Amino acid sequence: MFEGLSEKLSGIFDQLTRRGALSEADVDVAMREVRRALLEADVALDVVRAFIDKVKERAVGANVVKSISPGQMVIKIVNDVLIETLGSDADPINLEAAAPVGVMMVGLQGAGKTTTAAKIAKRLRDRYKRKVLMASLDVKRPAAQEQLAVLGRQVGIETLPIIAGQSPVEIARRAEEVARLQGFDVVILDTAGRTHIDEPLMEEMAQIKAAANPHEILLVADALTGQDAVNLARNFDSRVGITGIVLTRTDGDGRGGAALSMRAVTGKPIKLIGTGEKVDDLDDFHPSRIANRILGMGDIVSLVEKAAQSIDAEKAQRIADKMRKGKFDLEDLADQLLQVEKIGGLGGIMGMLPGMAKMKSQIAGANLDDRMIKRQRAIILSMTPQERRNPDILKASRKRRIAAGAGAKVEEINRLLKQHRQMADMMKAMGGAKRGPMGKMAEMFGLGGGGMGGLPGGMPSQEQIAEMQKQMGGAAPKLPDAPPPGAFSAPPRLPGLPGLGGPKLPGLGGLPNFNPFGKKK
Amino acid sequence: MSDDDNQAGGKKRGLFGRLFGGRDAAPAAPAPASAPLPEPVAVEAPQPEAPAEPRSWWRRLKEGLARSSSTISQGIADVFTKRKLDAAMLDELEDILIQADLGVATALRIRDAVGKGRYDKQIEPDEVKAILASEVEKALLPVALPLVVDPAAKPFVILVVGVNGSGKTTTIGKLAGQFAAEGKSVMLAAGDTFRAAAIQQLEIWGERIGARVISRPQGADAAGLAFDAITQAQAEGVDVLMMDTAGRLQNRKELMAELEKVVRVMKKVDAAAPHAVLLVLDATVGQNAMSQVEIFGRVAGVTGLVMTKLDGTARGGILVAIAEKFALPVHFIGVGEGRDDLEPFEARDFAHAIAGIDRDALHERTA
Fold first, then answer.
1. Among the four given CATH numbers 3.40.710.10, 1.10.510.10, 3.90.180.10, 3.40.50.300, the one describing domain B156-345
2. Does residue A500 form part of some domain?
3. A143 & A51 share domain
4. From B170, B286, B312, residue closest to A224, measured CB to CB
5. Which residues of A touch B163 (CB under 8 A)?
């Protein structure tokens, strides 16, 4: 989600920052383009208008034209307004009420209510240790109640036994009673999908609300929703007074305008986002991080969090130590490749890095996909331990054997070895400097000293990241296949990503040079 | 109102007669397959889930589109009432069209069509509406094609694909009901082996319409099921085999590869299969529908579109943009949850509904 919008906006901002001075007309043109970009991203027209007006007003107030770096000033204002529109802080599900706490799911048909109900139930149980009961009030769609029951069995959450012929209101009452008598903390009511102009069904929904008196009423909406998002959010909100929004299918390639629209129109927070088909694919919504991602500034914080969750700290520590000493063998490389995969593959990492949106097409063109990582790992795994530790002993016959074992060609093995050599050389060169970029990086990601606890709030601050990048920028040797300068030209405060030209990504201690932008397809 | 419009109104009345009065007339029905379709509506009216008094689908469609129509026509009225046409007005028009999910390129084209030769002249809202409707119709007319079931193909295999929650299973249920009502033997293959209870959902539809449902346990390989289903359908001499698939987002490569495999395996049994691949699009979806059509088209060889959920939400303008870019036939639109709520796609009706031309009023005036 958001990548398309991000791409558009960073293009527009590029033009702005490239000029030294800005006339009012320049700002107007840029705003016209921002407006178009937002509209193409399915942000609702009224929301776009309000957004642009706000930005313009502030741009005049801040006297953008006369400021020293007008381009960046505009971007900052857009960023601020974007965060305001999305809401500034994360706002998770509120369970502070007398048990059983009712959570009611509403939305259009096919928005993903039932799946989301199961995801939320699992989350509440796993993270908050609540005892959850789910009940399906969908008596309309064939097998809808059955669907929730099956999901319940899958994730180990109890569901209200199905009694055929009951009305949704009756089921809601029964669910509340069962939950109360059997000591459930939370009862999730999954309602039938309904269109917001279907009066009888909207009335039924209001009756369910009156009967069940839920503490949270969550509107489940598809992130791919078009301009109609505002109407639907407004109607559901005015009929039952939703308390929050759950955005589903954010793993699609939609541009996520619905998120902006619905938040702006209802003023209700987006509480959760569905990020995939599996029951664990549900995340808290962090408006400021999303705003950063939209503006192509990346989402380093999420990346670090994700890395912290999935990286094997001990292994990372070992690799970091080796890197410092300038030793880095193929086994380490294989470990690193594995960790990249764990974080969500290159695509996942790239998506969260600053300035990457613009390069998306280049990346796609370079055929940089996760299969490459798998292949490279396969090659390394086809070597003997001795070979992995001493790549120098690899001669033609060994290479042929490895190639046969990994289902690869000898050239691929040569390429991998070359990449590894380049990396190892670079690390040796940098290993001396204790406070060099690599050491700094290892430290930043809690691998150097003191673990994650050693970092302020467990995460690097923007300043730290900026500093790190400056250092990396200074030290990273120019590799033959590095992309042309300018490909990474910088969003503000997170200047460029020089490290990308080189072989490393933060936290991973370095990746082999995949030559993603170079001669090899 | 110009002569042109009256004439259009008169012409429309023929269509109206069919829609409101007798379903028997169906004079200028676009093509063979859609002509018999209204019949099952009448036949099945007594069914419990059908509304007591079946509304005409035009009315339902119009009700569904009412919100966007009124937004557009209100917008147009606001912009154009007693004013001279200038660039600012055209900008507004463009925005209004974008707001209806028509897409930027289409909005620009219609903006140009409105602006052409009318710059600095007084222009009436009705005239703008008429131009809008005719532009939309022009784009949609070539794609308003019925789904033709080739009787020579036994079974005629229809694969139904789309993103999660677009309405594939429901569409299959409705469509299978129509085939059954036409006297065709129908078999269903429960290819959504991922979503919980999707198989049961299709089985219930199968029971309702008396069609056999081929299924495998949840989590089974859909391609294997496709193989078995076609083999079985061939053995039994079934007319139509409809295969459901699990919903998948088009940017999920691994899931799209799985879909590709289903198609590949189908071809092993019958080189001509699938004879039709229907992509089900949710009308609430915005510009992402373009990407859905493109990628599903590439991977699964989509032959036609079905747009669902036009009853509730106001949109569907994206169909215009899709028609211009991909020129894929639009076979049906879904306008409700009942089994009769699937209608052949009519370009003119859709265009008028989008442009907010009130045909009832027009009808009364000309009558």
1. 3.40.50.300
2. no
3. no
4. B286
5. 224, 249, 252
B365 vs A: CB within 8 A: no
Q: Could you report the per-residue pLDDT of B106-154, keeping only the tens digit for each? A: 888 888 887 787 777 777 777 777 887 888 888 899 999 999 999 999 8
The DSSP bridge partners found for residue A189 are A104, A135
Q: How many angstroms separate the CA atoms of B251 and B207, rounded?
A: 34
* Angle subtended at Cα B186 by Cα B184 and Cα B192, rounded to the nearest 5 degrees: 155
Task: Report the interhelical angle of B253-269 vs B222-236 (nearest 10°).
Answer: 20
Q: How far away is chain A from the Cα of B8, in angstroms, using its nearest Cα?
A: 30
Is A109 in the B-facing interface, judged by CB distances under 8 Å?
yes
CB within 8 Å: A45 and B99: yes
Q: Which CATH class is domain B2-142?
A: mainly alpha
A207-258 pLDDT, tens per residue?
999 999 999 999 999 988 888 888 889 999 999 999 999 999 888 777 778 8
Whether residues A196 and A335 fall in one domain: no
Q: Do A195 and B167 touch (CB under 8 A)?
A: no
* End-to-end CA separation in angstroms for chain A: 26
Q: Taking the domains of chain B in order of start, what are their residue ranges?
A: 2-142, 156-345
Quote the minimal CA–CA distance from A338 to chain B in Å: 19
Nearest by Cα to A94 from A128, A118, A122: A128
In a mutational test of the A interface, the residue from B207, B287, B290, B320 whose CB has the highest number of chain A CBs within 10 Å is: B287
Tell me, yes or no, whether A195 lies in a domain.
yes
* Rounded-to-integer distance, Cα A247 and Cα A257, Å: 11
Helix (H) / strand (E) element for A414: namely helix A410-431
- List of chain B residues whose C-beta atoms are within 8 Å of the C-beta of residue A224: 163, 282, 285-286, 288
ipTM score for this prediction:
0.72
Residue A94 lies in a domain: no
